[in-house]
Design brief:
Helix content is 21%, strand content 27%. The protein is built from 3 helices and 5 strands, in the order E-E-E-E-H-H-E-H. The longest helix has 9 residues. 28% of the residues are buried.
């Protein structure tokens, strides 16, 4: 049995040309950001940052000003790690990960 990452919160990019979607795990404070199908992992991100990201009118502007280069700089993963199952992504609307 594989340990699957369970996201406690997710959001789509809201029509952003940069941010496709982003996921947040409140238990680990991991923030995964999908930028044009390239995934970055930010660690130890406070929930308040995710909340503001979700509420931001421009997800790309918020990302560039408040996430990029912070929280460990964003580890480039390329794609979602194998322990992150598609069922975890299903909570993000308007995206098909198959």
């Amino acid at each position: 049995m594989t340990n699957m990452v369970t996201y406690t919160h997710s959001a789509d990019g809201g029509g952003s040309t940069l941010v496709d979607e982003f996921f947040y795990n409140e238990n680990t404070e991991d923030l995964y950001v999908d930028l044009n199908d390239k995934v970055y992992l930010y660690k130890y991100v406070p929930k308040s940052v995710f909340d503001k990201f979700t509420e931001a009118e421009s997800k790309g502007t918020f990302y560039n000003s408040n996430v990029k280069g912070k929280w460990g700089g964003g580890e480039f993963l390329g794609e979602y790690p194998s322990d992150v199952g598609y069922e975890a992504h299903a909570v993000a609307p308007e995206r098909d990960h198959r």
